[in-house]
Amino acid sequence: MLRSSALEAISLTTYAGKLLATDALNTHDVVDPDVVLVPLTPVPGREEIPVLVPPAQLRKRSMASVEGRAILIHALAHIELNAIDLGLDIVWRFSGMPDQFYRDWIHIAKEEAYHFRLLSEHLNGLGYRYGDFPAHNGLWEMAEKTRDDLLARLALVPRTLEARGLDASVPIRDKLKQVGDSKAAAILDIILRDEIGHVAVGNHWYKYLCAQRGLDPVSTYALLAKQYNAPRLRGPFNLDARRAAGFDEAELAALQSQG
How many CB atoms lie within 10 A of CB 209? Predict the structure, then answer.
C-alpha cells in the first residue's frame, strides 16, 4: 500500500535508510486513499545530525572559500532532505484525494532524494559530509503548522516556501560559476528544472481543491498566508520559472504587489 509505505519511510530515523526506502517506493502500488493512518512514532524520523538552530545562528562564509561553498551546499542538501519528508508526509497524512495526487508526491519525494544525493556527493568532494554544519528547521515548521489542513499545506509549502527556490536558484548558480564551481552550478540547474515541476504539482492540486470548494485561489492564498503567518515574499522573482510552474498572471501580479 503506497501511503502506508510512505509513512514507514518518513518514520525512519537515519537519512541513509530514508533515502533507500524512498527509492524503493513504487508509484504503481495500490494507493489506499481513504485509509486514515496513525504513526506509531513521531514523524519525521530524524537523526541527531545536523544540529538544528534558529536561522540567525547559521554561519555565513564567502563562496570564494571551499568552506564557504561547503556551508552553502550543506544548507541546500538539508533543504532537499526536508523536501523528501514533505513529499512523504503529504502522502500518508491526507486521505481522500485522487490516486494521482499520491503518485505525484511520491514521484517528487524520489526526485528530492536524487537531489540530496547529488549535493551530498559534491559536499563529500569538497572534504565535508552532511551533518558537519548546523541547519535550521523552517520548512518542517510550516508543515507542522498545516498538518490539519491540506489546502493550507499546498498553499504555503510548495507554492510559498519551495517556490522561493525558483527565485533563488539562478543567482546562487551564477555565484557558484563565478567562483569556478561548475559542478555545483550544474547541480543547481538540475534542481531548478525539477523544482519547477514540483511547484507545478502543488499549484495543480491547490487549484483543484479551490475549484472543488468554490474558492478563489488568489484571495484564498492571501487569507491562508495571514492565518498561518507565512513569510512575506520579496523579489526579485523568477517570473518565467513561476509561469512554467503554473502561477497565472493574477497570482504573479498579487505576488509582485507585496514584494
Answer: 17
**Paired strand residues for 52:** 135
- Cβ pair 242, 252 in contact under 8 A: yes
Are residues 233 and 256 in contact, defined by beta-carbon separation less than 8 angstroms? no
Whether the bond into 39 is cis, omega within 30 of 0: no
pTM (two decimals): 0.96
CA atoms of 181 and 204, how far apart (whole Å): 35
For 21, how many CA atoms within 13 A lie in the half-sphere containing its CB? 21
Grid coordinates in use for 155?
498553499
Residue among 61, 72, 63, 80 nearest 177 (CA): 63
pLDDT averaged per 10 residues, the chain (length 259): 97 96 96 94 90 80 90 95 97 98 98 98 97 90 96 97 95 95 97 98 98 97 96 92 96 85
* pLDDT given at position 259: 56
Report pLDDT for 232. 87
Please give the full DSSP string across 187-214, using - where no structure is assigned. Answer: HHHHHHHHHHHHHHHHHHHHHHHHHHHT
Question: Which three cell numbers, joined as nine digits, stand for 209?
Answer: 481543491
Q: What is the C-alpha to C-alpha distance for residues 85 and 44, in angstroms, rounded to an integer?
A: 7
Q: How far is CA 9 from CA 13, 54, 146, 171, 231, in A?
A: 9, 27, 20, 33, 29
170 burial class (0-12, 13-18, 19+ CB within 10 angstroms)? middle
Q: Are 44 and 140 in contact (CB under 8 A)?
A: yes
- Tell me the three cell numbers of residue 61: 562564509
d(CA 149, CA 164): 21
Is 101 buried (19+), middle (13-18) or exposed (0-12) by CB count in 10 A?
A: buried
